[in-house]
Amino acid sequence: MAKLCRRVCGVIFFIIPASLAYFFMMRWIERGVPLPFGAIHNRRSLVCVWNLCSLLLLLLDSPAAPGRVWMVSDGDDMSTPELIRRIGRAMQRRVLLFPVPAGLLAAGGAVFGRKAEITRLTGSLVVDVARTRTELGWSPVVTVDEALRRTVDWYGERGGA
After folding, report:
1. What gap in Å lies between CA 151 and CA 81, rounded to an integer?
2. What is the pLDDT of residues 2-40, one digit of tens each?
3. Which residue range forms the structural domain that includes residue 105?
4. In whole angstroms, how far apart are CA 47 and each of 10, 85, 86, 105?
5. Inter-residue contact 126 to 47 (CB < 8 Å)
6. S-S: 115 plus which of 50, 66, 67, 109, CB 3.0-4.6 Å?
7. CB burial class (10 A; 0-12, 13-18, 19+) of residue 119?
8. CB neighbours (10 Å) of residue 44?
9. Does the residue 61 lie in any domain?
């Protein structure tokens, strides 16, 4: 896709893929598994597929797009515990969080070969979308809570929730 977009409109896309851990979270929430993220105080920028596609379509037609970096997010940065609670609300499930220090989670992740996943779940990654919003006039078309509801519906259609 990146080669095609570069050739057709001069736009190159770099997307940081979501961790599959978010889908595992839905399974754990569905099963009532207590999650050890209650002590995490991070901030994460997320983008749902609907908001990403909205921006990509705008970039394909924008003369300002080529040769520039455009950040995208849903505009509602949150911590991992907040994300888990919101997923739980979308699933209409009670969420059980208990506090485990990030360092202890990182050590456990290293022991079990899951250091990268734990880092994504406990670390912060916030992007500034102000320039994307002001210069392109873009704003998210779907709220985080609506995106989570749609994702939970999709998950349920495939045998979960």
Report:
1. 18
2. 444 454 455 555 555 555 677 888 999 999 999 999 999
3. 20-48+74-157
4. 23, 17, 15, 25
5. no
6. 109
7. middle
8. 19
9. no
Considering its fold, how many domains does the chain have in total?
1
Q: Provide the token pair at 135.
A: 């210069």
98, 36 Cβ separation under 8 angstroms: yes
CATH number for the domain spanning 25: value is 3.90.25.10
Are 5 and 11 spatial neighbours (Cβ–Cβ below 8 Å)?
yes
Q: Are 71 and 127 in contact (CB under 8 A)?
A: yes
Query: Is there a domain that residue 39 lies in?
Result: yes
Matching residue, tokens 């609506």: 146
**What SS3 class is residue 149?**
helix
Query: How far is residue 23's CA from residue 144's CA, in Å, rounded to a whole number?
Result: 16
pLDDT digits (tens, 9 = 90+) for 89-137: 999 999 999 999 999 999 999 999 989 889 889 999 999 999 999 999 9
Q: How far is CA 24 from the centre of its chain?
A: 13
Beta bridge partners of 78: 44
Rounded Cα distance between 12 and 158, Å, is 32
